[in-house]
């Protein structure tokens, strides 16, 4: 079997993290596991600059944390606005629709930046109370400007809910600096862990606002109550919690800046090649997390790459490929990918 080289999420994972997944599973209702969970909460809040807030860790994908934000927190606000710049902006709207929570949509063209003046005018005119957005729209690679968005929300007293699933540990992120009330993460993106955990971050202000409790499993009040003692209401993915804890400790030792620089260096290196190859980028202002680029025969190339053990992310556009820059990736892996794409593109033409 060929060695797999994923340019998808979570990317190549460190062996020491993978080894944790081979251990016998510990019982979770112990002081040892509680201490592990409490330290993980502490470190996560530190890394997102949310020292006065709380974080809930769900055994579920990132969409569950988005759903929890909507059904427990956003549901309290009458006038809601969603920024829809792609698949995951659309997901905010779909979750609101599922719960029959009326919300308006601010559409952003795929791969384009937000017209921030227009956004502010919409918020001012309609007196929105809460704004839901992505920091990085993963489907296009577009990074939105949180400095501007947060200033607009401050100015018009709008609660800010942000999906940071694919921007955390790829681009600088701070809940305190941007006055973010609720943020969501998942394990398989910047944290470079197997999928299966999602995190819901609640600012001190959000905690004071309270929650409606419209979902049994995702109920924030119930989860917060259990987390006081380092536990979850229902059986957690114990091994994933252990892998998360190990990863967070390594981040504490190495520093978040080291990870951010490594991811950015990968992105800059690959985008320089894209320019040389005249592969057009999909995003006007791309995140360091992924690069979306147009290649003749992109969808077919992505299928043929799998035969070589190389996984990239296709999209709804037949020519658009996306590769991530997280995980154990460097210039050698990028060069290998580029050479394969060049050969396949020539064959396709």
List keywords for this structure.
Aspartate Aminotransferase, domain 1; seven-stranded mixed sheet; two-stranded parallel sheet; 2 domains; 349 residues; 15% strand; globular; Aspartate Aminotransferase, domain 2; alpha/beta; 13 strands
- What global shape is seen? globular
- At CATH level 2, the architecture of the largest domain is 3-Layer(aba) Sandwich
Question: How much of the sequence is in beta strands?
Answer: 15-25%
Radius of gyration: 20 Å
What quaternary form is this?
Answer: single chain
CATH class of the largest domain: Alpha Beta
Number of helices: 12
The chain-level structural class is: alpha/beta
Fourth-level CATH superfamily of the largest domain: Type I PLP-dependent aspartate aminotransferase-like (Major domain)
What's the CATH topology label of the largest domain?
Aspartate Aminotransferase, domain 2
For the sheet with most strands, the description reads: 7 strands, mixed
Give the overall pLDDT as a whole number.
96
Helix content: 40-55%
Strand order of the largest sheet: 2-10-9-8-5-3-4
Strand tally is 13
Uncertain segments of ≥5 residues (pLDDT<50)? none
Number of domains: 2
H/E topology pattern: EHHEHEHEHEEEHEEEHHHHEHEEH
Measure the end-to-end span.
30 Å
Description:
The protein is an alpha/beta fold and 349 residues long. The protein has 2 domains: 5-10 and 256-348, Alpha-Beta Complex (Aspartate Aminotransferase, domain 1), CATH 3.90.1150; 15-254, 3-Layer(aba) Sandwich (Aspartate Aminotransferase, domain 2). It has 12 helices and 13 strands. Strands 2-10-9-8-5-3-4 form a 7-stranded mixed β-sheet, with helices on both faces. Helix 2 crosses helix 9 and helix 11 (298-307) packs across helix 12. It is globular and about 60 Å long. 45% of the residues are buried.
């Amino acid at each position: 079997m060929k060695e797999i080289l994923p340019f998808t999420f979570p990317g190549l994972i460190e062996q020491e993290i993978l080894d944790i997944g081979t251990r016998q599973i510990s019982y979770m209702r112990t002081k040892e596991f509680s201490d592990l969970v409490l330290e993980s909460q502490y470190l996560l809040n530190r890394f997102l600059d949310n020292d006065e807030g709380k974080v809930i860790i769900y055994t579920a994908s990132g969409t569950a944390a988005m759903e929890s934000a909507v059904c427990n927190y956003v549901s309290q606000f009458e006038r809601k606005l969603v920024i829809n710049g792609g698949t995951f902006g659309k997901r905010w709207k779909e979750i609101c629709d599922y719960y029959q929570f009326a919300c308006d949509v601010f559409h952003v063209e795929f791969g384009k930046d937000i017209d921030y003046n227009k956004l502010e005018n919409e918020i001012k005119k309609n007196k929105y109370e809460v704004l839901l957005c992505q920091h990085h729209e993963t489907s296009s690679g577009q990074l939105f400007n949180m400095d501007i968005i947060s200033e607009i929300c401050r100015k018009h007293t709008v609660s800010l809910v942000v999906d940071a699933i694919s921007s955390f540990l790829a681009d600088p992120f701070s809940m305190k600096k941007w006055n973010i009330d609720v943020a969501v993460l998942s394990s398989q993106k910047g944290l470079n862990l197997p999928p299966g955990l999602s995190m819901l971050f609640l600012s001190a202000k959000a905690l004071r606002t309270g929650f409606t409790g419209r979902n049994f499993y995702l109920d924030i009040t119930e989860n917060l109550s259990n987390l006081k003692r380092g536990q979850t209401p229902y059986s957690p993915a114990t091994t994933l919690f252990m892998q998360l804890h190990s990863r967070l400790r390594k981040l504490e030792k190495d520093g978040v800046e080291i990870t951010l620089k490594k991811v950015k260096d990968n992105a800059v290196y690959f985008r320089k090649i894209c320019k040389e190859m005249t592969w057009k980028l999909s995003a006007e202002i791309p995140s360091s997390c992924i690069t979306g680029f147009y290649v003749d025969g992109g969808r077919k190339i992505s299928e043929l790459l799998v035969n070589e053990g190389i996984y990239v992310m296709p999209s709804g556009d037949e020519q658009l490929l996306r590769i991530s820059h997280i995980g154990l990736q460097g210039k050698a892996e990028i060069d290998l990918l580029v050479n394969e794409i060049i050969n396949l593109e020539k064959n396709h033409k």
